Prior knowledge:
By secondary structure, the chain is mainly β. Strand 43 (about 370-375) and strand 44 (about 380-385) form a beta hairpin. The protein starts with a strand and ends with a helix.
Amino acid sequence: xxxxxxxxxxPKFTRISVGxxxxxxxxxxxxxxxDNDNEINLPNIIIPSISNSHxxxxxxxxxxxTFEKFSFVPNxxxxxxxxxxxxxxxxxxYSTNSRFANLTIGNYRQIEGAKSExxxxxxxxxxxxxxxxxxxSGRMExxxxxxDVNIYSSLSVxxxxxxxxxxxxxYIGGISxxxxxxxxNADSIEESYKSNAIVxxxxxxxxxxxxxxxxxxNPEMYIGGAFGFVNSSKIYNCYTTxxxxxxxxxxxxxxxxxxxxxxxxxxxxxDSNYASEFYNNIVAGNIYPLGIIYDKSLTSYKDFFYGGxxxxxxxxxxxxxxxxxxxxxSINTLYNRKDNKLSNNYYVNAIIGEGSVNNISKPEDYxxxxxxxxxxTDKQTTFASNVTLEALFSQIKDKLNPxx
Length: 404
């Protein structure tokens, strides 16, 4: 399949849905009947230039539908000419009230001894405008659910080589770029106790800023190991080990102008409907800011927010209670720090990078307890816990050594 939706070739669509199998799935179930061979071999799809679209490797858009019991290994490059203002997902570009269960994206293979390497990649080029990008869904809303999913595929997003004049906002997550009123693994803490369902994200997320790219406006990037942006959602039993790499290639303007939120689980949390809950999640990936110019005359990133679980919490609706961040485990490293500073406005914490809800500004004032975390940097290591490591390990050992 080949699609070209550039403005200089034919009519420009206001919003189209593109998938290698389906354009739009509604009130349907997508899956394979056989439990013995559940791998989908996707047709070759080439998208050199596209904008204002819902794009998925299975379906462009879904509503009131279920995707279950199948696997596939993506190896795809999109946007050789332009990728602008799109919602892209490894399964569905834009999903509402949809369920994703018993799925595997990518694969892994043993290379020597106990070592293994992940297989599968999604590479998006020439990204500009506002884009939502994830391995499962670019943007998910309205009671969408994810349960029992393994993600091995890596996700790479590249900004264009030429001047970037429009406002660029990227929502990128190992699971989904944006989630609102959505559920991962269970609808309540009580249900999560009973459920063996786990969502595991092993794949890396890579962001590349070309060295010669010229910026006009301040780009914003929300990059999470699981989700870029979350609004009023429940995330239980999620395990992320993939690394996040942001390569600036010593681009002077990018360091001066970029607003960056990055976290092993959720980059930005802004509840408007009900209080989000993050419970019993494990974050073990590392953050690599690369290609930085260490010069006292530079401010580096315009603003840099990093948190092991959440980079930034913001909530303007005072009628919504504060989020619950309970029984999470975060052990990760923030590399390439120098003089303990990447920005003039620098917010780093092992659980919450920075938060401002209901006039609460200190992470310890949130509804947080029984979290265990270690944050390693070039200068220091912080550790805090109010639950013993032995007790924690007994809870998570099955996740650390999953039977796949």
